[in-house]
């Protein structure tokens, strides 16, 4: 006989907040989060100290998942750094085309968290630094003359594609970003 265990209140809060804050933003009310997680208010404060702690933990978990997706996307493209970088933009095009796409979780959080000292901002900054470093490492493998700034440029293209994908998806922002990314990548010397 097998018994199925339901997730506990902490996990239900995380799952509900991850979904609801993506769909409705970080301004979603505590009552909606509690209802979505089917937990008592006390659970929110016991596990996260309040809504700000929950939002920060959701951003941290989402960042780890998304960083892993970048790596998976690049690994699936093989060993060639150019192909690995361009695969990111191809994948962004696929993500934007999904019916439930609502834009970049991290940009939305940064715009909606009015307190500049909210701990969620530190998470979004670290996330962007990690992604930029991941992109810069591929540019360095190509022999790009300025991989750090190049990684930042590629990240800017990603951020722009995701923002435009939420507001103007018919313009195919991922394809436009990919074309610009090719120019950043082309600054590396040609392979012998």
TrEMBL record:
<keyword id="KW-0804">Transcription</keyword>
<dbReference type="Pfam" id="PF00440">
    <property type="entry name" value="TetR_N"/>
</dbReference>
<keyword id="KW-0805">Transcription regulation</keyword>
<dbReference type="InterPro" id="IPR036271">
    <property type="entry name" value="Tet_transcr_reg_TetR-rel_C_sf"/>
</dbReference>
<dbReference type="InterPro" id="IPR009057">
    <property type="entry name" value="Homeodomain-like_sf"/>
</dbReference>
<protein>
    <submittedName>
        <fullName>TetR/AcrR family transcriptional regulator</fullName>
    </submittedName>
</protein>
<feature type="DNA-binding region" description="H-T-H motif">
    <location>
        <begin position="29"/>
        <end position="48"/>
    </location>
</feature>
<dbReference type="InterPro" id="IPR001647">
    <property type="entry name" value="HTH_TetR"/>
</dbReference>
<keyword id="KW-0238">DNA-binding</keyword>
<feature type="domain" description="HTH tetR-type">
    <location>
        <begin position="7"/>
        <end position="66"/>
    </location>
</feature>
């Amino acid at each position: 006989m097998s018994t199925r265990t339901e997730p506990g209140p902490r996990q239900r809060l995380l799952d509900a907040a991850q979904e609801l804050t993506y769909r409705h933003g970080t301004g979603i009310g505590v009552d909606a989060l509690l209802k979505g997680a089917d937990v008592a208010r006390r659970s929110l404060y016991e596990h996260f100290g309040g809504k700000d702690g929950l939002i920060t933990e959701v951003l941290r978990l989402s960042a780890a998942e998304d960083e892993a997706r970048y790596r998976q996307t690049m690994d699936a493209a093989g060993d060639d750094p150019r192909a690995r970088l361009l695969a990111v933009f191809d994948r962004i095009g696929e993500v934007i085309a999904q019916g439930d796409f609502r834009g970049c979780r991290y940009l939305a959080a940064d715009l909606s968290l009015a307190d500049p000292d909210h701990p969620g901002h530190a998470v979004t900054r670290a996330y962007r630094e990690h992604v930029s470093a991941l992109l810069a490492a591929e540019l360095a493998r190509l022999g790009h003359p300025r991989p750090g700034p190049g990684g930042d440029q590629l990240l800017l293209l990603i951020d722009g594609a995701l923002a435009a994908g939420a507001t103007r998806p018919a313009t195919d922002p991922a394809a436009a970003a990919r074309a610009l990314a090719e120019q950043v990548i082309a600054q590396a010397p040609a392979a012998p």
